[in-house]
Amino acid sequence: MRNVIPAPIGVYVIGSCTFFVLRMFESESHSISTLIDKLVREHVLAKEEYVRLISGCSEDMVRKVSVEAKKVTESSFGNKILLRGLLEISNHCRNGCYYCGLRCANAGVERYRMSREQILERCRFAYRIGLRTFVLQGGEDAVQTDSWIASVVKTLKEEMPDAAVTLSVGERSADGYRMMREAGADRYLLRHEAADKLLYGRIHPAGMSHAHRLECLHELKRLGFQTGTGFMVGVPFQTAGDIADDLLFIHRLQPDMIGIGPFIAAQGTPFENEPNGSLELTLLLIGILRLMFPKAHIPSTTALATLSPEGRLRGILAGANVVMPNISPVEVRDKYSIYDGKAAFGAECGEGISMLKEQLASIGYCVDE
């Protein structure tokens, strides 16, 4: 919402319509500020209040929310940014999600899966450059079984006991999750993607169960994982009401980590010609989530950096406190093509940590070492 500049007195006489519009803008601006203040105090809004914020997204609103979110972030974490090494262990996936470039039906993807030794070597590299959390991410690969992943986690924890292991390998059985947890896995990331069952069904193929996705999240929490969830911003068919439902679902779940990013189209998918999600709306939602969850870990994602060179830094200024440099082998980074043009080099990767530190310093932040 643009700033309101007081009109000269002549306007009130000559143009009553102008006076009415100005008063309307003043009233709306005051109302938005009231909602932001309420979110700061109570950490949750009603659905219709979230819809108003989402529907009224503007640069001015993003600035207002970001100012408050930055205060909350710095109160919880100071000016320290946490680094997590992101290792993409396989781009094989049994699923056919309509938005994902790794979907099983995409014949244009050159498939790969990392061996146990490759994973260990890349984690050793990450450890040497100072990273103490490894995020093993991949598709739902039938070859990388629950027991195989658990054995990799066990070896990592034995070799580097002061490092944390985060997994993001999709929907697994309760026994599989238990096996991974007992092997030493600390955290698990599983985006719910859509709280609304109808929307979930419109962006996933038949056979993928909305109820099972949510049950997986609850099982992860029951097992004691630090649990993360999230959703895409601007995926086809999504409405402001759907996003409000996502925010309310996340409030009920009370996760430890929340990852959101803009939808970016991928070749070889049913959504390949759809427009990308909004950078501004994603930043607004990062700020809203920070006000909802002062202590949660919220990453400034690679998708933000893909949409804009300043995207990742803007995410931090909007309330994020985590960055995940890519530590995958250089030869496979382009193959983990969940969307087109994914940023995975320069300051976005493990080899670019010094560049990342310089960028963070330029906005008053530093790495938590």
What's this, in brief?
The protein contains 14 helices and nine strands.
Folded structure, characterized:
The protein contains 14 helices and 9 strands. With 369 residues, it is α/β, with parallel strands linked by helices. The protein has a 6-stranded parallel beta sheet. The chain has a 3-stranded parallel beta sheet with strand order 8-1-9, with helices on one face.
Throw out a few tags for this protein.
369 residues; alpha/beta; 6-stranded parallel sheet; 3-stranded parallel sheet; 14 helices; globular; disordered N terminus
Fraction in helix: 40-55%
Largest sheet: 6 strands, parallel
Radius of gyration: 22 Å
Spans of 5+ residues with little confidence (pLDDT < 50)? 1-15
Strand sequence of the main sheet, in spatial order? Answer: 2-3-4-5-6-7
Structural class designation: alpha/beta
Could you report the average pLDDT, rounded to the nearest whole number? 92
Q: Whole-Å distance between the termini?
A: 39 Å
Number of helices: 14
Rough outline: globular
Number of strands: 9
Topology pattern, helix = H, strand = E: HHHHEEHEHEHEHHEHEHHHEHE
β-sheet strand percentage: 5-15%
